[in-house]
What we know:
The protein is of the alpha/beta class. The chain contains five helices and five strands; from the N terminus they run βαβαβαβαβα. The chain has helices at residues 14-24, 36-45, 63-73, 89-96, 110-118, and strands spanning 6-10, 29-33, 51-55, 78-83, 102-105. It starts with 5 loop residues before the first strand and ends with a helix. It comes from Psychroflexus sediminis.
Amino acid sequence: MSEKIKIIYIDDEKINVMLFQINFSVNYEVYTGYSGYEGLNLLEKHSDTKAVISDLSMPEMSGIEFIMEAKKKYPEKKFYILTGFEVTDEIENAIKSGLIQGYFRKPFCMQEIEKEINKLS
C-alpha cells in the first residue's frame, strides 16, 4: 500500500481546521495549525509534506506572508491559498510570481482541492 500524500492546512478559524481535517484525513495525511508560525513549525517537523494550503486572512502573519517565509526554506513545496474573499491583486501576483500554485475558495470544494493535490503524487 502506498503512503498517503502529506498536506499541511493552516487557518486561524478552528471550525475550518476541523472541517478540513475531517474531510481530507481519509485520503491524505493532514497536519493542521492555526497560524503562519505554526505552519513554519509543521514544515520543519514534516519536511516531506507535498502541499501546503493556507487561509489568506489571519492575524499576526497573513497566508501570503507565511508562504513567502516558508518558500525561502522549502522552495520545492507546492503552496496554495484558501480564501473566502474575491481574488485580490495580492493573490494574482502570488500566482504570477510562482509563490503559490493557485487558490481555492471558501467554502472549499473537496473535489477541486483533491484534483490539485493528486497531481503531486
